[in-house]
């Protein structure tokens, strides 16, 4: 463009000024994130992850986000450690490069599904038998995205005193849809039979005896214990809110409301200690107990203002916004009440085809397709997991999902019960 043309327009702002302005706006708009952590070990199988300083665009502070996660391991610690070390990278590698912030956040739920499944496949390849719950929370500005398998919950105490659950418990005892899914995929659900034929304890899946219906790891249990997470994405109002993420050592002792109320008005660090103390006081140390408290605080206010402790107005519970079509259980959902929190996304289906979209990206240069789970490029003839199309093999059931490599295709079939079981690992 010539200088003459430029001079005809109103004086343009230098790019640096525009970027600077955008950064400042972003900064004003972005809340502070403050956090605290507390734990008491019984078996030493709880792990957590705190990464407050991630960036969508490396080196650009305006693109920062933070990640918090809890992994409650069972039958050993290796799955929990593996998740801590690999899950975040696997999720991020499934998000397209060079997209806007909004596109990035929209791509996140699908990337979380891909990252969870990829991490599970990679862990299984190590031939170890432990498993873990995962509750993975990503905070970008006012937007909170939570992905979870198992029963480590994340609750939100939004301003206005509305406490809501952002996760779903994948416990066979409490989740009838998960029981039906596991049974339909070839698992047996029942209680432990003790001497004399009496049934005791919670519902478990056999073989293996796991009480959870979803986890990462558990190579020695059936593939119907899937790593496909429930994902929920919400946007807080600019009044902010508090997240409490904790393992079942907390939630077996305290309700969401009691946990939230027990620490209101206190800074996050102290709040986490108090929640653990409260759980210990009510139930004793029966299990590993880990708690993360994360405050999302308006930029111009240094601490989260205390929430009035009055009871929730009956009227507010009548003002629910629209609900997503799919619920994995019938948890009361108070989030949309009185405009406190905007629900952006919720999906909990255990079917990969419903979670990964239908993209079928062909690299025109290489003639390869990219696997929607593990992101490897593979020739269509190798992978073959395709919408109806020229590569579709007539012998198998139509697949409505995206391209999957041969390895991830096998995993998908096994999770849906079309392959008897994963290979047994000898003890
Ligand atoms: Zn793959």
UniProtKB/TrEMBL annotation:
<keyword id="KW-0464">Manganese</keyword>
<dbReference type="Pfam" id="PF00481">
    <property type="entry name" value="PP2C"/>
</dbReference>
<keyword id="KW-0479">Metal-binding</keyword>
<protein>
    <recommendedName>
        <fullName>protein-serine/threonine phosphatase</fullName>
        <ecNumber>3.1.3.16</ecNumber>
    </recommendedName>
</protein>
<comment type="similarity">
    <text>Belongs to the PP2C family.</text>
</comment>
<dbReference type="GO" id="GO:0004722">
    <property type="term" value="F:protein serine/threonine phosphatase activity"/>
</dbReference>
<keyword id="KW-0904">Protein phosphatase</keyword>
<keyword id="KW-0378">Hydrolase</keyword>
<dbReference type="GO" id="GO:0046872">
    <property type="term" value="F:metal ion binding"/>
</dbReference>
<keyword id="KW-0460">Magnesium</keyword>
<feature type="domain" description="PPM-type phosphatase">
    <location>
        <begin position="31"/>
        <end position="296"/>
    </location>
</feature>
<dbReference type="InterPro" id="IPR001932">
    <property type="entry name" value="PPM-type_phosphatase-like_dom"/>
</dbReference>
<dbReference type="InterPro" id="IPR015655">
    <property type="entry name" value="PP2C"/>
</dbReference>
<dbReference type="InterPro" id="IPR036457">
    <property type="entry name" value="PPM-type-like_dom_sf"/>
</dbReference>
């Amino acid at each position: 463009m010539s200088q003459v043309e430029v001079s005809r327009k109103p004086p343009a702002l230098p790019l640096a000024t525009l970027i600077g302005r955008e950064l400042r706006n972003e900064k004003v708009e972005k809340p502070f994130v403050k956090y605290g952590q507390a734990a008491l070990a019984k078996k030493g199988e709880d792990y957590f992850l705190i990464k407050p300083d991630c960036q969508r665009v490396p080196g650009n502070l305006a693109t920062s986000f933070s990640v918090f996660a809890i992994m409650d391991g069972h039958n050993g610690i290796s799955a929990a450690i593996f998740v801590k070390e690999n899950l975040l990278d696997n999720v991020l590698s499934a998000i397209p490069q060079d997209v806007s912030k909004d596109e990035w956040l929209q791509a996140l739920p699908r990337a979380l599904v891909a990252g969870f499944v990829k991490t599970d496949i990679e862990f299984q390849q190590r031939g170890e038998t432990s498993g873990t719950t995962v509750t993975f929370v990503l905070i970008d500005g006012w937007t909170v995205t939570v992905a979870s398998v198992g029963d480590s919950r994340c609750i939100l105490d939004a301003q206005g005193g509305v406490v809501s659950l952002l996760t779903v418990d994948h416990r066979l005892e409490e989740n009838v849809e998960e029981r039906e899914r596991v049974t339909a995929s070839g698992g047996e659900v029942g209680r432990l039979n003790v001497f004399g034929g009496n049934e005791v304890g919670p519902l478990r899946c056999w073989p293996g005896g796991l009480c959870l219906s979803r986890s990462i790891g558990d190579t020695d249990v059936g593939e119907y214990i899937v790593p496909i997470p429930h994902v929920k994405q919400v946007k807080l109002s600019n009044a902010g809110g508090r997240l409490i993420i904790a393992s079942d050592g907390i939630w077996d002792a305290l309700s969401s409301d009691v946990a939230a109320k027990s620490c209101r008005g206190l800074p996050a660090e102290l709040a986490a200690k108090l929640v653990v103390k409260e759980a210990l006081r009510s139930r004793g140390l029966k299990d590993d107990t880990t708690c993360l408290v994360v405050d999302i605080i308006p930029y111009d206010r240094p601490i989260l203002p205390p929430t009035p402790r009055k009871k929730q107005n009956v009227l507010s519970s009548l003002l629910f916004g629209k609900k997503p079509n799919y619920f994995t259980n019938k948890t009361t959902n108070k989030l949309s009440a009185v405009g406190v929190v905007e629900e952006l996304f919720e999906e909990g289906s255990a079917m990969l085809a419903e979670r990964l979209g239908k993209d079928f990206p062909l690299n025109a240069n290489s003639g390869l397709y990219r696997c929607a789970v593990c992101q490897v490029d593979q020739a269509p003839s190798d992978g073959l997991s395709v919408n109806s199309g020229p590569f579709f093999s007539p012998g198998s059931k139509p697949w409505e999902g995206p391209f999957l490599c041969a390895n991830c295709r096998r995993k998908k079939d096994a999770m849906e019960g079309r392959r008897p079981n994963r290979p047994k690992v000898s003890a």
